[in-house]
Amino acid sequence: xxxxxxxxxGCAGLTAAIYAGRANLSxxxxxGYEPGGQLSITTLVENFPGFPEGIQGxxxxxxxxxQAQHFGTEFKSGAITSVDLSKRPFKLTAGTETYECAAxxxxxxxxxxLLGVDSExxxxxxxxxxxxxxxxxxxxGKEIVVVGGGDTAMEEATFLSRFASKITLMHRxxxxxxSKIMLDRAHANPKIExxxxxxxxxxxxxxxxxxxxxxxxxxxxxxxxxxxAEGLFVAIGHDPNTKPFxxxxxxxxxxxxxxxxxxxxxxxxxxxxxxxxxxxxRQAITAAGSGCMAAIEAERYLETNHL
Length: 307
What we know:
Blueprint: E1 2-7, H1 11-22, E2 28-30, E3 44-45, E4 55-56, H2 57-70, E5 74-76, E6 82-84, E7 90-94, E8 97-106, E9 110-112, H3 118-122, E10 128-129, H4 132-135, E11 143-147, H5 151-160, E12 166-170, H6 180-188, E13 192-195, E14 198-204, E15 213-218, E16 224-228, E17 231-234, E18 238-240, E19 270-272, H7 284-304
Parallel strand pairs: 1-2, 1-8, 2-5, 8-19, 10-17, 11-12, 11-17, 12-13
Antiparallel strand pairs: 3-4, 6-7, 7-8, 9-18, 14-15, 15-16
Helix pairs in contact: 1-2, 1-7, 5-6
């Protein structure tokens, strides 16, 4: 039986652990499917306050982890497979392990959808990115490719036009899911060139450790071409890691947890923080801030209910 269990070990989960640890709650962090979250596959982080020269994503996560351990946080690997939030204490199952807790913080994050080609995953953080706000600055004066057909892709391409010299926006169909206003804005941008209907076959060049071009196939003609580029931004959405909570915690149409009064969910004693409930900002600093809020609210909940 634990005072508080935190699901997820990204910025939100680790910040929650630091605050819960300092409050003498002896938190347990379950690492989840992606230990360290999105930052663990990010290279240089330049926009986290306090690091004027920037810091490597994995290093920032490791520092947070050590800080949480310093305040008495225990870590266990594994991902939650099922939960029972219908009675107290809350019961969580991760593989063959079962855990119980008085308060629960869900910081399981959201996983960026990828295109599914091998070279793409190997080059993440080395020219391949899923976050324009995080990495756009590194592509100043460079030619890049953005893949996607929704509002996210239009928004990312428009944002990246502040930095890149040229953007090729690729989509597998000739029609776009994006709203008319976002599509019109991208079409009107002189730096953005549209390329449809194409699918990405390969990101070049893994052997050189960076992006040099994108090999695409036209789905109408089957002809393959290589588009020179120094960066590839995949903008086809995110999937919140909320499957175990379906039917128990309130979610929006896309599966993100709905919170009110800060980090509170519809179940008293269950709090949510980070990308699992935030599909708008998705930044390390906002995730950390919501992790802090969740831990403070969890502490207040335990104290108020004498748990």
